Automatic annotation (TrEMBL):
One of its GO terms (molecular function) is ATP binding. Residues 4-229 form the ABC transporter domain. This is ABC transporter ATP-binding protein. Keywords: ATP-binding, Nucleotide-binding, Transport. The lineage of its organism: Bacteria, Bacillati, Actinomycetota, Actinomycetes, Streptosporangiales. The keyword ATP-binding applies. It comes from the Bacteria. The chain holds residues 1 to 230 of 292 of the full protein.
């Protein structure tokens, strides 16, 4: 199954192409890293994938369907946006109740187990959590929806190095345990190299490189020859 296919995909704001001539064909089951500098078009591509934006040009399908084409498709794709709201005045338990009401496939046991492992008590108010804990709560809510694809827009950008590592480790474990496909963005390749097995490099609104990390490394080694610095 193809998790994300884009053909000549483009999105224009006024006269500016935020994403242009994007071709992708990504099999399911990967943790895909989307890397590029600020303004490269990462959020635009993610918003197209989850159906929050419509393309100006070309086509995109996610899990075989047009993004945002109906409730069934929306339930298959989880989105942890840069500004995913956790409600400061609500407890973690309230967030779980909200998740259960909004998502038909909600897995409450999974959410509770994960929060317990993280040491996050259900009665704590989201507004009292640290940045790393809030990010973990958002990740837990995304996973408990039991999507087939989880899209995360720069989830670790504002976190300290320890919280970054813990978040990415948890994401990797969840992806492996639940056979979840993941699309994860960052402007730092160092965030992605440990967790992703597929990489998309986006620069100036265009996909410059896309492929399995192993293949990209093999190509790199073929082009540059054996390393002499060892
Ligand atoms: P960042 O890492 O800063 O979040 P990004 O790679 O996610 O950047 P996008 O947010 O997709 O990049 O933006 C791509 C380009 O499109 C940028 O030049 C941005 O200014 C522009 N852009 C994004 N959203 C809009 C909008 N709603 N209206 C006009 N221009 C926009």
């Amino acid at each position: 199954m193809t998790v994300l296919r884009a053909q000549a995909l483009g999105k224009k704001y006024g006269s500016h192409w935020a994403l242009k001539d994007c071709d992708l064909d990504i099999p399911a089951g990967h943790v895909v890293g989307l890397v590029g500098p600020n303004g490269a078009g990462k959020t635009t591509l993610m918003n197209l994938a989850v159906g929050q934006l419509r393309p100006t040009a070309g086509d995109i399908t996610v899990l075989g369907n047009k993004p945002g084409s109906g409730p069934a498709q929306l339930a298959r794709v989880g989105y942890v946006a840069q500004d995913t709201p956790t409600y400061a005045g609500l407890s973690i338990a309230d967030h779980l109740r909200l998740g259960a009401r909004l998502n038909p496939g909600w897995d409450d046991a999974l959410a509770r187990n994960r929060l317990e492992q993280l040491g996050l008590g259900l009665d704590r108010k989201a507004g009292k959590l640290s940045g790393g804990q809030r990010a973990q709560l958002a990740l837990t809510l995304g996973i408990a929806k039991r999507p087939e694809l989880l899209v995360l827009d720069e989830p670790v950008a504002a976190l300290d190095p320890l919280a970054r590592r813990e978040f990415l480790q948890g994401l990797m474990e969840a992806a492996a345990e639940q056979e979840l496909s993941v699309l994860l963005s960052s402007h730092l390749v160092s965030d992605l190299e440990r967790v992703c097995d597929y990489l998309i490099v986006l620069v100036d609104s265009r996909v410059r490189v896309a492929g399995e990390v192993e293949e990209l490394l093999a190509t790199h080694h073929r082009l540059t020859g054996p390393r002499r610095d060892r």
